[in-house]
Amino acid sequence: MNEAADFLSRAQAILRGNDTGGFTKPSLKQYPHQWNWDSAIIALGLSYFDLPRAYTEIRSLLRGQWDDGMLPHVIYDPVPSDYFPGPAFWKTDGRPITPGVRTSGITQPPLLATVLRLIHNRQPSLDFLREVYPAVLRWHRWMHTCRDADGSGLFCIIHPWESGTDDSPRWLRVMDNITPQNVPGFHRGDTIHVTQAERPHDADYLRFIHLIDVFRRNQYVPQRLLAHSPFLVQDVLFNAILYRADRDLKELAGILNEPAGEIDGWLEQMQVNFDQRFWDERDGLYYDFDICSGSPIRVNTGMTFMPLYAGIPDPQRAARLIEHHWQVPSEYAPDTLTRYMLPSTSKSEPLWDARRYWRGPVWILLNWMLADGLQQYGRDDLAEALEHDSLELMARSGFREYYDPRDGSACGATEFSWSAALAIVMSANKTPRQD
Ligand code: DGY
What we know:
By secondary structure, this protein is mainly alpha-helical.
């Protein structure tokens, strides 16, 4: 077997190994349930070698949908595990539609519509699209109605886990303003299989759990969560993914001859408000917005480039992002300290930490989305370099959760499904190089 074929078969083996039959675990020990955006990417990877299994992945994700349209961030496997928090902690029983399915009470960035479009483009199936489209539309409707904190049409996250970037330094100030009170006793499960040095700090974790406690006391009623959550942030990452997913949902509506007026309305409103809310002309960066303090969160992380994936910035702003930040060695570009792109936090940030979760490591999912964004702006050179780095990291260090940008060594969970899935997707046009 040649090197490229061996790489692909190792990636497929990860997805097969993490497969429970109905859904795929992001990682056997660290994440032994079904995660929302992981599953979407896993389905995309599966579609390259087992399309029926990709459909099963998507169907099993949609089993978790709530009666109001929310698609939760975790759907629990009934098999007991050492993962915390489990369904007994969330206390969401009764909300999902499918009997017996237990879930978390928050959502995650909506990659599903984009993945459906990508799968359909390569392997069209109107029957499958027709089957799943109504549920995906309902989820988008929920995002545009139940979490609009100020009538801007922008989605407001109520927990760092909703952004998927749990301990990003951009949450620090907001988290500092939260005083956890009467937090029920708990034991972290996330530091059993991964070293504490690569996971969020205890102070962050305590606030993650406090927030869940606030939500369950408010019985997950959307208006009450917006009124009582001490964490309310309009997040560039989430909204960029949502805008892109709305665009893809609109394409799906066209393919199915479904009305798209409602989706057009969402896109128009976001288009008007996105740059107005997030773009900072002085720094030439996109910043998240803290609803509680009514001010931008001026922290420089890789999420600032996500509007490229959405196709939002005009060419001048895109060029400014790239030339004044992406290509600057003291922020993101390789230098004597780092070799691999893209560090998830700018090296110029005081909290930059090469191996700690979202404080600095390279993530394959971020790279995949940003390579797509760079291509949309005609920067195929940078997109190719990013995919090259991603494939090299996985070829050298295995399919891991994240990587140290200094030397490419592996961090976090082992046998990580979305890295393997994206290795398959990225390899479709390329061959990994080992020098
Ligand atoms: C975790 O358990 O660390 C996850 O990020 C929550 O989704």
